[in-house]
Design a protein that fits this description.
four-stranded antiparallel sheet, three-stranded antiparallel sheet, alpha+beta, 2 domains, 32% strand, 15 strands
Length: 196
């Protein structure tokens, strides 16, 4: 491919559905698009699941004032998906109480990228020269393949909107993907991911 014109898609535009590792058998599973309820369906063991379980990394965080003496209190802890409150002990007055925690779900778990619905490892990811290459689904992988294969890459966003240009996924790719010297090796790896 000689030329690729960036359509201006943001990463969020592609995060509609995912190919992930099944939580039961580790086989290939699909997380259906948003409009279809984002149900998980495994292609190997046929396990199905509706959103509710979180398998990835997450942190519970509390920042409050003590209910007794109003001393500022802060605490965070890894979250296992089971509870939403953190016990806090005030060093000032000695009061102990549970406070509602804010949960932050992380995009990575144990060094791998995960989906935003279940926190399961993405199926389409591989290590490339010390960096992590990943895609949400096969359509995302195809966009990356076309971009990497192109010798001439254009910012073909219409209308010419600076805000849209700067939020486009392709304008924010890591250097190892945009480097021309990595083109052949990346394309070979992408071909292997398509066969996965």
């Amino acid at each position: 491919m000689e030329r690729y014109s960036d359509p201006g898609l943001a990463l969020f535009d592609l995060a509609t559905h995912y190919v992930v590792a099944c939580p039961k058998c580790a086989g290939k599973a699909w997380v259906k698009p948003r409009g279809e309820g984002q149900k998980l369906v495994c292609t190997i063991c046929f396990h199905t699941e509706i959103p509710g379980n979180w398998y990835g990394s997450a942190t519970a965080y509390v920042s409050v004032k003590c209910r007794e003496c109003h001393e500022p209190l802060q605490r965070n802890a890894p979250w296992n998906g089971q509870w939403k409150k953190l016990a806090m002990h005030c060093p000032q007055c000695g009061d102990t109480c549970e406070y509602e925690a804010h949960i932050t779900r992380h995009a990575r778990h144990e060094g791998l990228m995960t989906d935003a619905v279940y926190g399961l490892p993405l199926w389409l990811q591989a290590e490339f020269r010390g960096e992590l290459f990943w895609a949400f689904h096969y359509e995302h992988l195809e966009i990356l393949r076309q971009y990497i294969a192109a010798k001439h890459r254009e910012r073909g966003i219409t209308p010419r909107n600076t805000l849209k240009k700067n939020s486009a996924m392709l304008s924010r790719l890591p250097a190892f993907i945009t480097r021309a010297g990595n083109r052949d090796a990346l394309l070979k790896m992408i071909q292997e991911l398509f066969l996965k």
